[in-house]
Amino acid sequence: MAIVRESIHGQWSSRWVFILAATGSAVGLGNIWRFPYITGENGGGAFVLIYFVCVIAVGLPIMIGETVIGRRGRQSPVNSLKAIAADEGLSSNWQLLGWLGVLAGFLILSFYSVVAGWSVAYIFSVGAGTFTDATSQVSADEFKALTDSAPRLLWWHSLFMFMTVFVVARGVQGGLEQAVRWLMPALFLLLFGMVGYTMNVGDFNAALSYLFRADFSQVTADTILLALGQAFFSLSLGMGSIIVYGSYLPANTSIPRTIGLVALCDTGVAVLAGLAIFPLVFGFGLEPGSGPGLVFVTLTVAFGQMPGGQLVGALFFVLLAVAGWTSAISILEPIVAWLVEALRWSRHKASVIAGGAIWVLGVGSVLSFNEWADFQPFGKNFFDWSEFLSTSVMLPTGGLLVAVFVGWRMSRASTLTELGLSDGVIYGAWRFLVRFVAPLGVFVVFLNALGLV
Ligand code: PHE
User: Fold this and answer.
1) From the CA of 30, how far away is ligand 1's center (Å)?
2) In the chain, how long is the greatest CA-to-CA distance?
3) Are 272 and 191 spatial neighbours (Cβ–Cβ below 8 Å)?
4) Which of 283, 370, 296 is nearest to 139 (CA)?
5) Residue nearest to atom 7 of ligand 1 (CA)
6) Which of 273, 282, 425, 438 is geometrically suited to a Cys-Cys bond with 403, CB 3.0 to 4.6 A?
7) How far is 230 from 244, CA to CA, in rounded Å?
8) Cα dihedral across residues 326, 328, 330, 333: positive or negative
């Protein structure tokens, strides 16, 4: 049965804007900072291949499911779930899944903003020539000097949160849409420019064979779980970002085709980020498996040595910051949409108050690198706990419940109508993945994160 509701927050002007916005949400620090370094730590090609499988078999079906929920409910995740549950005669407790997303959003954005803040800081320090001819030691010291300083981290975190609130406060068409219309083309331009440049300056062949030659001897169960978790985070699943973006999607747009394109772009950007980074890492004899410091500590050494590295390096961090910015917007949006609906606050007020609360939480993450470094209940500092609870516990739980909701609880007729498909092979494949493969996959990742498998 077709259900026609209208969002009080507005609607994307076209299918293309949705594609830009959803790609902007998906493409973030997860693609450009995290994907390359975990690929580096897990031996390259085999990891990349497993990652592709996880995106197709688990990520994509759930992403389609989230968009279905959003467009059918046409409200914030909490209220969309409530409305659909009522339509389908299900328990109103399903709205708790929306609540989980709100909570996850608070936590994720609080630490995400701190890391994105590093990228903004690096635009200036790389641009100022700090890394010119720097050795690995100098580069590592530079990174440590930044994270050791609470005031510096606080400043960059505050600036990044301000940028995020600024966009969200202006609304769907006036803020989010304007931002992605400018930022996403800029992001693609910078990324292609970077790859073109590193093809010539770095060791492109070494990077190609590193990313695409699969050596399965290093693959363990952990590798698979890591790939699945990464697919999840990278596609922005499990916390309502895609639900809320789906709620602004024009009614006649085909969800499977549109989301397929978004997932393809997200994966493409992760690979391109690898192709921008690894040629430099190999070309300058650096270490690919250097972990979270890969772009901040290792890559900056390469920038310091190559012709034009000061400018190209600064642009690389512009790219990272822009990618983080469009993702951060999508993390704040579900919370703000819900506050506007539930408390009848103006969007402006909701953005400032939610952003302010997240900023306060982020101060805890800032301090975990310096003043509170020794405060580590159960072996994790505040930053690590925020990251662990949100990305390893809340996102998989959210994703699992989304799969159960659309796969098992919503009627077949409702999902068929919303997807605009006939009851054929494509629908059958989606339904099979979302009912069986995705929940099982996510469940196993979850147990692994809790240390149970
Ligand atoms: N997908 C974003 C990234 O790759 C992060 C994100 C997670 C955004 C969850 C929204 C929701 O950086």
Assistant:
1) 6
2) 66
3) yes
4) 296
5) 236
6) 438
7) 21
8) negative
Q: Evaluate whether 176 touches 163 at the Cβ level (below 8 Å).
A: no
Looking up tokens 């990618």 gives: 323
How far apart are the C-alpha atoms of 438 and 403, rounded to whole Å?
A: 7
Q: Closest by alpha carbon to 152, among 122, 132, 111, 112? A: 122
How far is 74 from 243, CA to CA, in rounded Å? 9
**More confident call, 93 vs 215:** 93
Residue 354 alpha carbon to ligand 1 centre in Å? 18
Q: Which domains does the chain have, with CATH numbers?
A: 15-449 (1.10.4160)
DSSP H/E element including 354? helix 347-367
Contact 366, 154 (CB under 8 A): yes
Q: What is the pLDDT of residue 218?
A: 79
DSSP state of 123: H
Would you state the structure tokens that stand for residue 172, as one six-digit string? Answer: 């769907």
Atom of ligand 1 nearest to the CA of 331: 10
Q: Give the residue, by CA position, lying nearest to ligand 1 atom 11.
A: 236
The pLDDT value recorded for residue 290 is 83
Cα separation, 350 vs 279, in Å, equals 44
Which amino acid does the sequence have at 400? L
Q: What is the pLDDT of residues 288-341, one digit of tens each?
A: 988 888 999 999 999 999 889 999 999 999 999 999 999 999 999 999 999 999
Residue 335 Cα to ligand 1 middle (Å)? 15
* Structural contact between residues 73 and 93, judged by C-beta atoms closer than 8 angstroms: no
Predicted local distance difference test score (pLDDT) of residue 453: 66
- Candidates 34, 107, 233: which one to mutate for ligand 1, based on the most atoms within 8 Å of Cβ? 233
* 453 alpha carbon – ligand 1 mean position (Å): 26
How many Å is the Cα radius of gyration of the chain? 21
Tell me the whole-structure pTM to 2 decimals.
Answer: 0.95
